[in-house]
Amino acid sequence: MNKFVNTLIAATAMLTTSFGAFAGVMYTNTGLASADTTLTFDEVVLADGTALTNQYSAFGITFAGAFYNPQAQAFPPATDGNQIGNFFPAASPWSIMFDNDIEEAAFGIATNPNSTLVEVLLDSVVVDFASANTDFDGTDFFQITGLVFDEIRLTTTGDMLALVDNLQFSAKSDVPEPVSVALLGLLLAGLGYSRRSV
Questions:
Q1: Which residues form the signal peptide (predicted)?
Q2: Cα–Cα distance measured from residue 125 to residue 111, given in angstroms and rounded to the nearest whole number
C-alpha cells in the first residue's frame, strides 16, 4: 500500500509541475517567447478596408468579420503598420479561424474605447475566455496557452473598433503532454500494485 501511495504522490507532483504555468486566456504586456508562425500582416498587402476571408490561407488562417487596415499611426507596442480589425459600423463578434488545432497563440490589440471579450473555441465550443480593458493605453496583448483550439472570437464593446497585430500561433504537437504521461504512469503503477496484492 505504501508504494502505491508514494507513486500517487510522485504523480501528483509531476502534474503540479506540468501545470505550474498559467493555462488559458490572459491579458498581458508581451506576446509569446517563440511561436511556429508570426504574422505582422505585411505578408499579404491589401487595399484599406478589404474584407478578410481566405487571403492568409497560405499561413493556415481565415477570417470572418475582419478587415485589412494599413495604419499610418502606431499604437505602441502591440499594433503598428499593417493590421487587421473590425470597423464602425463593425461586425462584432469577429473571428480568426485556424486550419489546424492550435496549442498557443498571442496577438497585440488596441480598441477605441472600452473592453474586449476573447473566446477560444474548439469545434465551435468555447473552451476558455477572458475580458479586459483594451483601449489604446492598455497592456496590449492577449496570450492563450495550455489549451487546444481552432478559433479565436473577439467581441468589443462601445463603438466596437478593434485593431489586431503581431498574431503568433503554434500548432498542436503530437508529442504526449506531460499530464498524459503522468496519468499513464499512475495507471500502470496502480495495475502493478493490484496484481501483486492479489
A1: 1-23
A2: 25
Residue 121, SS3?
strand
- Please report the pLDDT score of residue 89 as a whole number: 58
Does residue 65 belong to any structural domain of this protein?
yes
DSSP structure string for 71-114? -SS-BTTTB-SEEEEE-SS--SSEEEEEEEEEEEEEEEEEEESS
Residue 48: Cβ within 10 Å count? 11
pLDDT tens, 63-109?
Answer: 999 999 887 565 666 777 888 988 755 668 899 999 999 999 999 98
User: How many domains does the chain divide into?
Assistant: 1
Burial of 118 (0-12, 13-18, 19+ CB in 10 A): buried
**b/e 124-153 (16+ beta carbons within 10 angstroms → b):** eeebbebebebeeebebbbbbbbbebbbbb
Q: Is residue 125 part of a domain?
A: yes
Question: pTM value?
Answer: 0.76
**Helices (runs of H) and strands (runs of E) counted in the chain:** 2, 11
- Cβ neighbours, 10 Å, residue 57: 12
* Neighbouring C-beta atoms of residue 90, cutoff 10 Å: 17
At 44-73, the pLDDT tens digits run 999 998 999 999 999 999 999 999 988 756
